[in-house]
Write a structure and sequence with these properties.
Strand content: 25-35%
Distance between the termini: 36 Å
Helix content: 25-40%
Number of helices: 10
Shape: elongated
Largest sheet: 6 strands, mixed
CATH superfamily of the largest domain: P-loop containing nucleotide triphosphate hydrolases
Order of helices and strands: EEEHEEHEHHHEHEHEEHEEEHEH
Number of strands: 14
CATH topology of the largest domain: Rossmann fold
CATH class of the largest domain: Alpha Beta
Length: 312
C-alpha cells in the first residue's frame, strides 16, 4: 500500500529582485522545485550554502512569500489555507534563539498560546519528557547546556503536535555525543508517526538517517532518490586484500583495474563495478594459489555522490 503524500511541491519558484547602482538583477533562489514527501519517512534535503534550502523552509513557515508554484501540506493549499499548513508543520531552526530568563516550561506554554491551544489541551509535560528535559522544566533557559537548548528548540516545534517536523541543520557545531542524542530523539519521534524533513551538512548523518534524499544546487533539485539508489550511482569500488604471499596483477589484463599499492602481504586495488567483479579477482588469487586472509571493500559514500552530482 502506497503511503500518503504529506507534502506536495509543484513548480515552486522564488525570485528576489536586487536593484544595484549598475543594473537591476534577479536572483533565483528556487527554480521549478518539484517534491513529494511521504507520510512517515525521514527525508533529507542536501545542498551547498546558497542552494535554496533555507528559502524553501521559510516559504513553508510563512516567513517568505513564494513567487509562483503550488504547495500543499496534507491536502491544504498554502495559498488558500496558510493557517492549516503552518499548524501541520513544526520547524526547528538552525540558530539557538531562546529567551534566557524564561524556563523551558514557560517557553513551551507561550509557544502553545501562540498556536491558540487551550490550557487544558496543552502537552507541555509530555513534550518535556519526550526531549528528556523534564528535570529542567523550571530552570532558566540560560542555565541549560548547548545540547539541552537544542532539545528545547525541538520541544518548541512540537507543542502543537505537528505531523511534519523540519530540522534545519540541527547538529551544526555540536559534538559527536550530542549529535547521537539528538538523532535518537528524531528516530523516536519518527517511530511515533512524525514525518521528518532535515537539512544537514553531515553527509554521513544523512546516509544513516534518511529514507530518501533530494539534492539542491543553485535553487534546482538535481537529484531525488532513495538513499540506497543514490549510493548505487558510485561506479568505483576499492578493495584491500590481505594475502599470505605477493601477487603481480599486472600480468593480467583486467579492465579498469588500478593498483593503488602492492605490498608483500597486502594489495589495494580499485575498479569500475560495471567492468569487473570481485569474483573475477578472487579467481585470479586462487589460480595463483595465493591464500586470501582478509578482504575489506569500500563502495564509497554519500559524500562521493554529492560531490559528483553538484560538480556536474
Amino acid at each position: 500500500m502506497d503511503k500518503k503524500s504529506v507534502l506536495y511541491i509543484k513548480n515552486l519558484n522564488k525570485t528576489y529582485s536586487i536593484n544595484s547602482s549598475k543594473s537591476p538583477n534577479n536572483v533565483h533562489a528556487l527554480k521549478n522545485l518539484n517534491l513529494d514527501v511521504k507520510q512517515g519517512e525521514i527525508f533529507g534535503l542536501l545542498g551547498p550554502n546558497g542552494a535554496g534550502k533555507s528559502t524553501f523552509i521559510n516559504i513553508l513557515s510563512g516567513i517568505t512569500i513564494k513567487t509562483s508554484g503550488k504547495v500543499t501540506v496534507w491536502g491544504f493549499d498554502l495559498d488558500v489555507n496558510p493557517r492549516q499548513v503552518r499548524a501541520s508543520i513544526g520547524i526547528v531552526p538552525q540558530e539557538v534563539n531562546l529567551d534566557p530568563f524564561f524556563s523551558p516550561r514557560k517557553l513551551l506554554e507561550l509557544q502553545a498560546g501562540m498556536y491558540g491551544i487551550k490550557k487544558k489541551d496543552r502537552i507541555t509535560d509530555t513534550v518535556l519528557k519526550l526531549v528528556s528535559l523534564e528535570n529542567e522544566g523550571d530552570s532558566y533557559a540560560r542555565s541549560l547546556s548547548g545540547g539541552m537548548k537544542r532539545r528545547l528548540l525541538m520541544a518548541k516545534a512540537l507543542v502543537h503536535q505537528p505531523s511534519i517536523l523540519f530540522l534545519d541543520e540541527p547538529t551544526a557545531g555540536v559534538d559527536i555525543n550530542l549529535r547521537k542524542n539528538l538523532w535518537d530523539s528524531v528516530k523516536l519521534l519518527n517511530k511515533l508517526g512524525v514525518t521528518v524533513i532535515l537539512t544537514t551538512h553531515y553527509l554521513e548523518e544523512a546516509e544513516q538517517m534518511c529514507d530518501r534524499i533530494g539534492i539542491l544546487t543553485k535553487g534546482s533539485l538535481v537529484a531525488l532518490d532513495s538513499t540506497q539508489n543514490l549510493l548505487s550511482r558510485i561506479k568505483t569500488k576499492k578493495v584491500i586484500f590481505k594475502i599470505d604471499s605477493p601477487i603481480n596483477l599486472k600480468n593480467y589484463s583486467l579492465k579498469s583495474l588500478k593498483i593503488i599499492y602492492n605490498n608483500k602481504n597486502e594489495i589495494c586495488v580499485s575498479y569500475e563495478k560495471n567492468a569487473l567483479t570481485m569474483n573475477e579477482l578472487i579467481e585470479i588469487f586462487n589460480k595463483e594459489k595465493i591464500k586470501i586472509i582478509d578482504i575489506s571493500s569500500d563502495d564509497g559514500d554519500l559524500e562521493d555522490v554529492f560531490i559528483n552530482i553538484t560538480k556536474n
